[in-house]
Amino acid sequence: RTASSEVGLGNLTKALRGIKMLLDDRVLTLRKQQDIDQDAALARRLQQELEQEDVRRQAEDVRLLQEFLDQDTTCQLCGAKEDMSQEQAITVVALDHCDHRICSTCTYTAIKVAQPTSQRDYVCPAPGCSQPLPQRAVKRLLLAEDFEKFVDLALADLAVGEDAKGDGAGALIKCPKGCGWAVMIDAQSPSGTPSSKQCPQWESSVGIDGKPISEEAARHRQTFRFRCRKCHDTEFCAKCLHTPYHLGYTCEEYVSYQAARKCRFCDCKIALSNPAIMKPEYVRKSKKLQQVILARHLPGAPKASLESLDRIIATSEPLANLCEAAECQERARDGCTHIMKCKHVCIGVRGEKAHIGCMVQGCLGSTSAGGASGKLVASGVVDSGQVAEDLCNICWVEELRKAPCVKLECGHVFHYHCIKTKLETRWIGVRVTFSFMDCPLCKQTMSAAAIKPLIDQSLVLKKLVYAKAEQRLAIEGGHKDAQELKPGGRYEKNHAEYAMHKFAYYICHLCQAPYFGGMRSCEVAAGVGEERAFIKEEMICGGCSSQGQNTCAKHGTEAIEHKCKFCCTVASWYCWGTTHFCDDCHRKQGTPESMSRKAVKDLPQCTPDTCPLKLAHPKNGNEFVLGCQICRSASAC
Fold it and tell me: I need a surface site. Which of 130, 135, 242, 441 has the fewest CB within 10 A?
């Protein structure tokens, strides 16, 4: 029994061990499953957290990106945001060099205040920042026309190249007036002619001193003389940048020319041997001093003391600026010798009672002592605004300072010899006009003491011609309804000017008296349709040229009536100052039947018995006077 019990107990122990192992395996399995479930839950939780983190990060990235974008399109100065939807769009640009963000409005305002003269003046408008604006930023921030101004200033920032010295080939030269225009100098002249050759038309050119330019000066002109295309009045030397260009001189020669004594009329250099220049060896020599005074065209002082002569020479030193050219000597004889306080010589005429005053541009002198009356005379720029360097408005060739001038009562100044020539030449052409008496600038009748005799002669002639024209207008009538004479018309209350506008008057070649020459409209037709050339000898009045009764004891020659030159009819037209027409013959002018083109043999002829006028007269083709129109009309002849 004990053995059996031990065996059973062993089996039971084995069974229990098997059950325990089974239970342990079961527990282990259950624990593994629990761990797996926990791990799965943890994984799911972690996955959710990762997804949420991704969403948060994406949102943050979007926020940061938007914030960054908002900063890049917001002006740091005024806070305005970029808006392209408005009519006046606002553009914001982030600058690379200074990291400032500026808008178009702030940029435009800053540039308007700065008034830039070069591209360097276009800088960042942020306070304390002076970084230049790049071209791409300027183009985005400014309007098209404002950007064009920026582009135009591009050349203003280009420096003159180092190789501008010497021959200047390859140098970029700016206009000295600072307008921004520039030119590149190369081996070719501006006109395309190689600088080693001279243009034929320049062989006769003269320089600023009035002398022919040398071959060297001509080559210099071809290479270095330019006219700015922006400020068209600026002509400059591209080598020394002097304006105006020193025509006739190279740059080096011009420096020497400027330092030399020059003639006040022609600007040419004066030789030291000039008799008007005081020389050391003349000191205390009365005869030599007298010669110097006379050479300066001053009144001689033969009985003056040496001290007086020395004083005259010392005070008249500016008059020594006179060359020996005949033209300059003549102008010195006609010119005023008065020297003003500013040491400039008066450019008026000799013997004037009131001096013009100093007209040198930039002269600070305000008064001038002396003059014929010994009173102070106004100086500086004249009332008209003219200066001595201005061209004379009559000749348009020489500056006012280069010849004696006259100041008219209207205030304008012109060369005396130009006014004199204008008044002596009188009208242009054969028809009498009086515009030559008018000031070229203000159209008032010229008046001045120096030209009074010439003006008075012309005024007498003008009064006579105007009287004849008014009388002719009254005789012919038909002017009362003229639109030009009505209120508001061109010749309202001015019948004389209307008559001169309607009629043509000429000067008789024989008696030098003015005479009626027909309608002005016929004169125009003669010059255009008939191509008629006026011959001075043909301009003869009726009293000097006509056959027959050529004068009236009561009315003179003004109302003499003529026969038509081409037929037997009373003339009603007088054309070209030489020819009388009837209505029918006048109407044919300008047509193939033009009477003035026919030979005398082709004109209709008559006899005293067949003549419609019932009188004997020369053959048609010749002028013939019938008598006084006024007397015939009144049946008084």
Answer: 130
